[in-house]
Amino acid sequence: MLCEIADVSRSGYYKWLKHSDRKERDYDDYLLIKEIFDKGKRKYGWRTMQMKLFSEKKITMNHKKIIRIKKKYHLFTRIRRVNPYKDIMKKSLEHRTCENKLNREFKQGIPFKVLSTDITYLPFNHRFAYLSVIKDIASREVVSWNMAQHLEMDLVLDTVENMKNNLALSPETMIHSDQGFHYTNPLYIERLKEFKMDQSMSRKGNCIDNAPIESFFGHLKDDVDYKDCKTFEELRLLIGKYMKYYNHERQQWNLKKMTPVEYRNHLLTCT
Question: Fewest CB within a 10 Å sphere: which of 19, 35, 106, 244?
């Protein structure tokens, strides 16, 4: 009568009755598993659980049973998060650093002989843009720059590519950078070889070794209201205007009160 009221078949009822004490049978095993699971700070998977049960409790338990009980009682293993820099570090094994050939010799008198490069980030409208710049140390002129909303290799490679139209490159031209991922990348190194440029790098953890470009980024961030930009294109236009202003209009005391472009032409005349 009760089966008819509950709309349950008689065979279904007896099947349920047969297995109704399964929870009690699992419960003792659950306590064993939970003890080891908590002891392992909820980091053990079924393999470790199986080994610990045998080594500490002298109990051999089938892995399917461990998985079933863990799932049944919601004993979820904490999965170690993937380190976002792991792939970069793995790739960096293929990368190569070189010596600090510049050695802080920032007083240069020949344009296009020694260049300095780096990347900085510009926060705007709850996002980030990345600015890659190449600067001539002698004249302080920005000879190439590029912007992107990512840090992929093309940010740096395109900066180098844009530079070739602005410079009279020679085998004596040296470009200095830090030991960042982009500058130790084989693609970047190969691109410099194509341009027959010599490569120099700062010592690890010594940002002063690349002071000229760091100084430029400091002036840019002081002079430009980049945080007020709403879109990436608006920011790009703003940075482009500043680059023209910096090269052609911003006079500098240490450049005999000339702009970088004027001083570059002055040096070329003297040489």
Answer: 19
User: Is the CB of residue 266 less than 8 Å from the CB of residue 258?
Assistant: yes
Specify the length of the chain in residues: 271
Residue 64 CA to residue 77 CA, distance in Å, equals 16
Instruction: Extract the tokens encoding 90.
Output: 């793995």
Distance CA 235, CA 254 (A): 29
Structurally, what CATH architecture does the domain formed by 89-270 represent?
Answer: 2-Layer Sandwich (3.30)
Burial readout 233-271 (b: 16 or more C-beta within 10 A, e: otherwise): eebbebbeebbeebbeebebeebeebbbbbbbeebeeee
Kindly report, residue by residue over 226-258, the tens digit of the pLDDT.
999 999 999 999 999 999 999 999 999 899 999
Domain span(s) for CATH 3.30.420.10 in the chain: 89-270
The CA distance from 197 to 203, in Å, is 19
Strands 174-177 and 142-148: unpaired
